[in-house]
Design a protein that fits this description.
It is a single chain. The protein is α+β, with helices and mostly antiparallel strands. The chain has a single domain, classed as Peroxisomal Thiolase, Chain A, domain 1. It has an eight-stranded mixed sheet, with helices on both faces. Helix 1 crosses helix 8 and helix 3 packs across helix 6. The chain is globular.
Length: about 240
């Protein structure tokens, strides 16, 4: 699957600019322990105040990467856990027999932030939400590139985001506890530099998931001079190469 990345916007622990991501990709020293939140000045203050950290990271990347196409570009939003901090609060309220907030529930589902993006921008183009466990980043990318060609879109917006899960869930997660959001404005492969994505399934699944977040592995590849990335998950082997 060949495609061109017109724009990449990412945000993570101690990494908020392209310069930070270049440093991360080239193993330069960074303070990666602190997560700061984007200001999201393009949104009215009243709307910003209601957004969770997960929503702020996701919308910042989506709005910045979509550029002037924000009102028309089709999109795919992907996340393994979604806004699990908000969901955990709802579960705790159920356990405590507290009344549930319909607003909090509505904003906890996987397509909620994609919906906020479409409402804020007035975008009526097709939008889908993907969750595929450990492979959520790459499976979302497969979905976006497939739609790009299947529907002959000029471009598509792909957005992936996940926050470190709440403490009570961390013993059950084998992947590293990082915060990351990334948005890619993707076009069909042209004469310009593009990326080729391939994947194969294992005959027998690996015994354990990879500890490496796929999104961070991708960003290390994208912001470095590496020509290839090979990454094993429990069920698949993923390969990215520059063409």
């Amino acid at each position: 699957m060949k495609f061109a990345i017109k724009k990449c916007i990412a945000w993570g622990d101690g990494k908020t600019s392209a310069e930070d991501w270049y440093a991360f990709a080239n193993n330069n020293s960074l303070n990666t322990e602190t997560l700061t939140l984007p200001e999201l000045k393009q949104m009215p203050a009243m709307q910003r105040r209601r957004l969770s950290p997960f929503a702020k990271l996701t919308l910042h990347c989506a709005l910045t990467a979509s550029e002037s196409y924000e009102q028309t570009v089709p999109s795919v939003f992907s996340s393994r856990h979604g806004d699990l901090h908000k969901t955990s609060k709802l579960i705790a309220d159920v356990a405590s027999k507290e009344p549930l907030s319909p607003t909090h529930f509505g904003l906890s589902v996987h397509n909620a932030v994609g919906g906020l993006f479409s409402i804020f921008t007035g975008n009526k183009a097709p939008l889908s939400a993907v969750s595929a466990g450990e492979d959520s980043f790459f499976m979302g990318l497969v979905d976006a590139v497939s739609k790009l060609y299947a529907y002959n879109y000029d471009r598509i917006l792909y957005v992936y985001s996940d926050l470190a899960v709440p403490e009570q869930y961390q013993p059950y997660i084998q992947q590293s506890h990082d915060n990351v959001a990334v948005a890619l404005l993707i076009e069909k492969s042209t004469s310009q530099a593009c990326v080729n994505l391939e994947f194969t399934s294992h005959d027998l699944p690996n015994s354990a998931e990879s500890s490496q977040l796929q999104a961070l592995a991708f960003l290390r590849f994208y912001y470095s001079n590496n020509q290839q990335l090979a990454l094993d998950s429990k069920r698949y082997q993923w390969q990215l190469s520059r063409v």
